[in-house]
């Protein structure tokens, strides 16, 4: 076993010990349902901001997206990171944080399905929202493991424990650690570990970018830009993405605005201790996103410098095993595995990828588990005791983490394809109803239902049309469905637009909500202005 592997094992052991300790120490604050799901609504701005940021950026972005967009688009891919910071963090916090915190306090809502049910006086909304969350977020959770196998496999090539390959071992570590601290300490443990993981992510990304830029293969920023400009007539240095401009815009919109309707993201606003702390959280969250998002995509553009063919159309053509998912791990191993300090940095990057995955996984699983134990159970079983809800939420957290691990390792084709649509479907269903429900008193029940159904129907109809017009249809329905997943980002952005537009249009012509119901949500004492 070499220096790289020994250093990585030591780092993993220390990291695991810290995560378990945080879970144990947080257990006493998770004895009530509010404590388990929202940390007692007593979370400070730095922890809230780091919890939001670490849930935002998973291994999918650090490894998969960075490798693919960096290779295909080049420096223009950094705009995705900028969009995530400005639109997905800064604007989201400015427009949603205070209002979400205040209104969920007024309504006593602990989850997004509860918010819709209380805000519009319709328990069927709670059921619908909970079902959408369960069906699409659990498969999405399995996608969080993407990239982990490539990174772990690069550091521990040929590793096999009890017949499991290195990628599966890494995914098991993530699932086990997340289960321990989340089941023990709930949201408090999650936010505390997110803070630690966020610091690890910032340090490792900054050092990684500096190390890559000044590595012998790259030769500094000036040399990097000069060489990148020689590919496809400067395509990789075109700041607006060149021929990939449309593709770039779609992914900026999907990944930046999509978080406005994702339950695991907006729930971070529920738990903030005071609305006066939102300003600090906004600044910290935005700064975190700039460093992580821009750093990851910029690093991805340097992947070509560590291949056999700098101008290759795809990583496979350039000799990179694993395709796009192999670009970043291959680059990091070549850049940092030759020295002790490089091995330490490589271990930090491994912890960065683990942190990104665990924080996102815990946020998704907590939303999915509460959708069943709180939202669905509360509708179909009257007078359910809070202790019972806490117990079942803990059990379901463990079950959903185990299920996501199974789906990730089994690589079931239909689940892998379904993951491509998850983000767009969930955001498309919820973004319009949630935003208008927060800001506009005249939003009606019918308008919200049209937003719910319109978002889902848009993705279904566009997917069906794509399948029917696909050449792969001759090979079977599933082959056509898989081919249609390539356009899932476009379908998701369209669904979000439909949702945002249809809610106010229908609300203008449908029955208004009773005044007492509206007043209970828009309490002027909480700073909610008349709208």
Mean pLDDT: 86
CATH architectural designation of the largest domain: Up-down Bundle
Strand arrangement, largest sheet? 1-2
CATH topology of the largest domain: Sodium/glucose cotransporter
Overall domain count:
2
The CATH fourth-level homologous superfamily of the largest domain: Sodium/glucose cotransporter
Rg, nearest Å: 23 Å
Shape: globular
How many strands, what sense, and barrel or not for the largest sheet?
2 strands, antiparallel
Strand content: under 5%
- Cα end-to-end separation: 65 Å
Number of helices: 21
User: Helicity range of the residues?
Assistant: over 70%
Q: Which structural class matches the secondary elements?
A: mainly alpha
Instruction: Give the number of DSSP strands.
Output: 2
| Uncertain residue segments | none
Order of helices and strands: HHHHHHHHEEHHHHHHHHHHHHH
CATH class of the largest domain: Mainly Alpha
